[in-house]
Amino acid sequence: MSVRGAARGAPTAQPRTRINPVLNSSARARSTGRNPVVAFLREIGLPQYAEPLLQDGFDDMETLQEITDEHMKDLGMLPGHMLKLKKRLRDLQPSQLQQ
Fold first, then answer.
1. C-alpha dist (Å) from residue 23 to 1, 19, 33, 77
2. Rounded CA gap, 22 and 9, in Å?
3. 88: buried, middle or exposed (CB in 10 Å: 19+, 13-18, 0-12)?
4. Which of 24, 23, 26, 81 is closest to 48 using CA atoms?
């Protein structure tokens, strides 16, 4: 039996389905509309980082408050935007974190 013949009769491996932790586009659109992180980023002029932050799990204000420089660099944030975000997070009142 040739290699070609064996390959024809061998079962083919099916591609494995991967679980994607990233929301699909319609679910993402619904979740970003009411998300306090998205609202905060819009308010401070950094809405372009909303989707990457949500995808990386920064989906509530308490978690966003704990963001590190390394996280922000990994997201591709510009140095000035990193400073702006950190300053605005420091300036938040405790009541704003409960949203």
1. 48, 11, 14, 21
2. 38
3. middle
4. 81
* Structure token digits, residue 5: 């013949």
Residue 50 and residue 31 in contact, taking contact as beta carbons nearer than 8 Å: no
CB atoms < 10 A from the CB of 56, how many? 15
pLDDT value at residue 84: 98
Q: In terms of C-beta density within 10 A (0-12 exposed, 13-18 middle, 19 or more buried), how is residue 77 classed?
A: buried
Q: pLDDT digits over 89-99, tens only?
A: 999 977 666 55
How does DSSP assign 11-52, residue by residue? Answer: PPPPPPPPPP-SPPHHHHHHHHHH-HHHHHHHHTT-GGGHHH
Q: What is the pLDDT of residue 93?
A: 78
